[in-house]
Every structure is written in C-alpha cells, then in structure tokens.
Design a protein that fits this description.
The protein is built from 11 helices and no strands. By secondary structure, it is mainly alpha-helical. The protein has a domain at 55-192: Orthogonal Bundle (Tetracycline Repressor, domain 2). It is elongated. This is HTH tetR-type domain-containing protein. Residues 28-47 bind DNA. Keywords: DNA-binding, Transcription, Transcription regulation.
Length: 198
C-alpha cells in the first residue's frame, strides 16, 4: 500500500456509508470511485482495491482513537478518572464516524484477518489501559487485578461493542452527549462491577 495523499484520504470517508449499506462484498470498486470522485486507477495505485479501502478507513479510525485515548490517559488526574476519560474518548470517535463503524460490523470477519490492525489495536488501546491499571494501583484509585492484559481487552471489548451498537442506530445529533451516556454505564460496570456490596 502506497502513502495516500491527504486530499484523497479525506474523500475516502465517503465510501464508508456505501460499504456500511452494502457490505464490502456488495460494493464494487466502480461504486467507490463514483461516490468518492477518486478514479478507479488511483484507488488501485494507492490501495489494494476495496479491501485496501476498508483497511485504510479502519486504520485511520484507529489513529483517531489512538490520539483521543492518548490525550485521555496522559492527564494529571488519578488513573481511575483517566480510565473513564479513555472510555469517553473511544466512544466519541466511534459515534462521530457511525458509517465507518457500521462498515466494521458488516465485515468484522474480514477485519479480524488483518494482523496489522490487530497490532494497532494493541498499541492504541491495550497498552495504555494496562499502564493505567498499574498506575491506578500505585495511586490507590484502582485495585490490583490478576491479569491486566485480559482486563484491558475486556474494557476495549465493552467499549467497542457498545460503540458499534450505538453507531448501527445511525448518525447521532449529539455524539459527545451520547458517548458520555454510554461511557457512564460502561464505567459503572468496569469500575464498580456487578457484585453486591458486602
């Protein structure tokens, strides 16, 4: 895959709605070219056809998540507060790009076979959350867990499924408010659990 010029990259987001509606298998490269205004030859030059388009879009969204989560986890607050901010950050990015999330749901099996995206998710989310878990033990805002990697993966899974479900409902009038509402429920589950108080 060649480096995609920024001017073309921004136009590729127009393909997300098309892929969300039809699925990748039901979308032709001619359709992508038409909706984005990018010539088919240019798409093939920079990307590996429609698979490359989906891979680019998901990679770009992961970059956005990485930036938002990075800002959230680097604050001066205690680790618990920064973990809550990371939940809101990821959900906000997802709800700002509902068509891309719907495309992801439609082609989840295909996405799972992209090892570079798996590595990107690990670096984007798992590692910062694992660090927050350790920092939370150190600052007293979070308890020690036996397996931080599994906990980080579970946090990511909870956020991702909630975000994908909300995005599948369609565009949101106020993505930030909806992200905050979802984040409150997820944070309650993650941080307080379901056990009764003893």
């Amino acid at each position: 895959m060649r480096k995609l010029p920024a001017k073309l990259a921004s136009r590729l987001y127009d393909a997300a709605e098309l892929i969300a509606e039809r699925g990748l298998d039901g979308t032709k490269i001619d359709d992508i070219a038409e909706v984005t205004g990018i010539p088919k030859a240019t798409i093939y030059y920079h990307l590996d056809g429609k698979n490359g388009v989906l891979q680019f879009l998901l990679g770009d969204m992961l970059d956005l998540v990485a930036g938002a989560v990075g800002v959230a986890v680097s604050g001066d607050e205690d680790a618990r507060t920064r973990l809550q901010a990371a939940v809101v950050a990821q959900l906000s990015v997802m709800l700002e790009h509902p068509f891309l999330c719907r495309a992801l749901v439609g082609d989840l099996g295909r996405v799972a076979r992209l090892p570079e995206l798996t590595l990107a998710v690990h670096a984007t989310f798992f590692e910062p959350i694992e660090r927050l878990l350790a920092e939370g033990v150190a600052d007293g805002s979070l308890r020690q867990v036996a397996d931080p990697g599994t906990v980080a993966m579970s946090v990511f899974g909870a956020i991702t499924i909630a975000g994908l479900s909300a995005a599948a409902e369609g565009p949101h009038d106020d993505p930030a408010a909806d992200a905050a509402r979802l984040a409150a429920g997820i944070s309650e589950l993650i941080l307080d659990g379901l056990a009764t108080r003893g």
